[in-house]
């Protein structure tokens, strides 16, 4: 048989208040109505829940009912609260895919802001290359992607989160390692190291175009292994180009140098599917926007 949640609250209130009149006052209901509804419940259950004389107190059956009712009511309140939180985007999981360079500074800051402001939302993070991020986002495996070169698709909503300048990464023995800033032409004839172009096609095209604009020629080497730590920069003749958020986060034995060339900013974008916007995703996007404003990043 089904028992109304309201009646459970009534029985618990009578037990806690030690009487029908005080319980009715607490519940803001008329005492005769309260007494009648509990009597009807007792009749339906076939047990007496309360002794009425000389004082109102639960019977053994009433004690069992009150104990169980408290558990049910607590779970009901929790269910209601969690449902309301989820509806506001304050509870749930957001699956975020990101490129490696985003984890140097941006991703940790976004995750920290979410933990501080929306602790009920879990941010499930996975690193990958842009082509794989694109495939997974289309397939619904991610809710949001942070990338610099996601292809344009009508299915996508996108927003610039953080434009960045370029810095060069060189080995400590490189002739330019002691400089704070250089122009790209000063690397003329040296070897430019970069991940395989098919793994980051947009970023690779951006870097190659920047080098061409310098008017100089360079050697090119695509590294088969992911990560700055695997680039061979110790020969004093090689360099890599990365976003300026990498400053202070490069491998031991390397140094960063600001690039002074007048180049378009290298933008990190938030990309998500137009037809798959959850409340929790909306909270994450809003939090990232707020973070960008606070940190002085640019948001379109």
TrEMBL record:
Domain HTH lysR-type: 3-59
Full protein name: Transcriptional regulator, LysR family
PROSITE patterns associated with the record: HTH_LYSR (PS50931)
UniProt GO cellular component terms: protein-DNA complex
Keywords of this entry: DNA-binding, Transcription, Transcription regulation
Stored InterPro entries: LysR_HTH_N (IPR000847), LysR_subst-bd (IPR005119), WH-like_DNA-bd_sf (IPR036388), WH_DNA-bd_sf (IPR036390)
GO molecular function, one term: DNA binding
Keyword check for Transcription regulation: yes
Family named by the database record: Belongs to the LysR transcriptional regulatory family.
UniProt xrefs under Pfam families: HTH_1, LysR_substrate
Lineage top rank: taxon: Bacteria
């Amino acid at each position: 048989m089904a028992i109304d949640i309201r009646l459970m609250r009534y029985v618990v209130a009578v037990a806690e208040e030690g009487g029908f009149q005080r319980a009715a006052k607490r519940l803001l209901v008329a005492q005769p109505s309260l007494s009648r509804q509990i009597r009807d419940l007792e009749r339906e259950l076939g047990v007496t829940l309360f002794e009425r004389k000389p004082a109102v107190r639960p019977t053994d059956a009433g004690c069992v009912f009150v104990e169980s009712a408290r558990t049910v009511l607590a779970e009901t309140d929790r269910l209601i609260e969690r449902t309301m939180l989820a509806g506001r985007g304050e509870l749930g999981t957001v699956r975020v895919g990101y490129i490696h360079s985003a984890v140097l500074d941006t991703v940790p800051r976004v995750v920290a802001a979410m933990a501080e402001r929306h602790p009920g939302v879990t941010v499930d993070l996975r690193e990958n290359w842009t082509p794989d991020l694109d495939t997974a986002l289309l397939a619904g495996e991610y809710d949001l992607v942070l990338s610099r070169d996601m292809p344009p698709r009508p299915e996508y909503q996108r927003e610039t989160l953080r434009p960045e300048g370029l810095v060069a990464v060189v080995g400590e023995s490189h002739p330019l390692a002691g400089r704070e800033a250089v122009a790209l032409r000063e690397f003329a004839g040296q070897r430019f190291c970069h991940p395989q172009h098919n793994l980051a096609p947009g970023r690779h095209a951006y870097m190659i175009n920047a080098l061409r604009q310098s008017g100089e020629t360079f050697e090119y080497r695509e590294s088969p292994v992911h990560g700055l730590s695997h680039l061979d920069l110790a020969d004093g003749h090689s360099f890599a180009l990365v976003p300026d958020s990498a400053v202070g986060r490069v491998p031991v034995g390397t140094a960063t140098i600001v690039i002074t060339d007048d180049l378009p900013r290298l933008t990190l974008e938030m990309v998500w599917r137009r037809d798959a916007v959850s409340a929790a995703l909306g909270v994450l996007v809003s939090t990232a926007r707020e973070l960008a404003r606070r940190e002085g990043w640019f948001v379109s």
